[in-house]
Amino acid sequence: MFELFVGELPIDRPFGVVSTMGNEKDEQVTDRYFLVNYLDFIIGYNEKEVVSANVTRELNLEHLVDITEWKEGMVIQFSYSVQWTPLPHISPSQALELQLKSTMPHGHQNMDIHWLAIINSFVLMLLILSLFLLIIIRVVRSVRDLSRYLQIPDEELNAVEEETGWKLLHADVFRAPKHRLFFCSAIGAGAQMTSMMIMVVLVGCIGAYYQRGAVASAAVISYMVTALLGGFVSANLYQKLGGEKWAWNIFMTALCFMGPAFLIWSFLNTVAIFYGSTAAFPFPTILLMFAMWACVTFPLTVLGGIIGRHRSLKQAQAEGSPFPCKTNKLAREIPSCRWYQNPVTQFFASGFLPFSAIYIELHYIFNSVWGPRIYFLYGILLLAFTMLLLVAGTVTVLFTYFHLNAEDHRWWWRSFGSGVAVSAFFYLYCIYFFLQTGMNGFLQCSFFFLYSLLAAHGIALMLGCVSFYCSYFFVIYIYSRIKAE
């Protein structure tokens, strides 16, 4: 395949042909390889601006060079022709949009596949949401029933409470998780990634990406601006959990995504330089990227962290404890759990169900990132992304309720781990996609697997943050109802 741009309009076409010759019965089948050495461009113009570009796909034997027995030093002559066509009905502002839509194969069928994927995700979300609402109704009803229990002696009331496991954890459920500094840093970085992704998709929905490099530029700017939110969320939560090393917390928030990203990019840029690839970043671009992080992203993270910490301190002075129940000094013993309450079961279910809502759309995104197609269906992507967040959050809340019913108060990291589970399925899909592409060589393999690993890391932070906060508000809601009664 080759991909080139004519007047900022993308063109792609197979550059070679494989011909199978022989008889399969006689087992004398050979493959011959031919190279296309002639291109016929058809370019439309309007007001001295290029508004369409295409290459004829008709192959002529005169324009095929047999390279089956390639020898070093062979010289191949390439040629092209150009046909200019006036197109007054296409304006220059609509050129790229029409060019992208014309390259979509089987446009009608293609859109049907997208909408079927959205409907599938919507039905899945309704089923999980129905189960979630049934649990909420049951919880609220059981809490309301406590009012009549208050009329009986304490011994009998305690016996009634022991019948439902999650009520027994009111003195342990808000116990700070282990490694809370790293936990809050990951949540803050996930909030930043989530808000960045929402901004990028929303900007794409208004059609602002019909220019080369617009998606990358929007992603970089959004990441820098949302650093304020990431620092605020991380420091605010860390202060609520009683953390004292708030400066380290803010620093770790700033490095939670950019640290791995810098290491992976440094290695891949070195590989690209060694191979002489144009994928290597020039030195001025490297300095610019570092300056943007050091002068914009990091200061905004620090500013957001300071604001979030002071906000938490003010709330503590005005309202007291941020949680509806007090925490005992000694942790409650955790009993053995059943198979459906096992962390492995949660990891599989909380990863597979949300991933099933987006895997079809992932195919088109991967063809855009690693193939010749340019993705532009951001309205569909917004719906798929919304379904992903809803399904991931709802499934995590359901498993959090199961764990609390099993008298296991360690829900903090497990709720975050649901997002990590989705990223694990995402990376497995990356491996499957790689096996279908036929990529080879150290340069291609290293770029694909390491950048896919970085994308999986970002998805883990993003969905981990969403899953955690869904569980967080659910836990506060049900235990505040106990306190109210």
From TrEMBL:
InterPro entries on file: EMP70, MFS_trans_sf
Xref: SUPFAM superfamilies: MFS general substrate transporter
Chain coiled-coil ranges: none
Gene Ontology process terms (BP): protein localization to membrane
Localization annotation: Membrane
GO CC aspect terms: membrane
One Pfam family here: EMP70
Keyword Membrane: yes
Record protein name field: Transmembrane 9 superfamily member
Organism expressing this protein natively: Symbiodinium pilosum
Phylogenetic classification of the source organism: Eukaryota, Sar, Alveolata, Dinophyceae, Suessiales
Encoding gene per record: TMN4
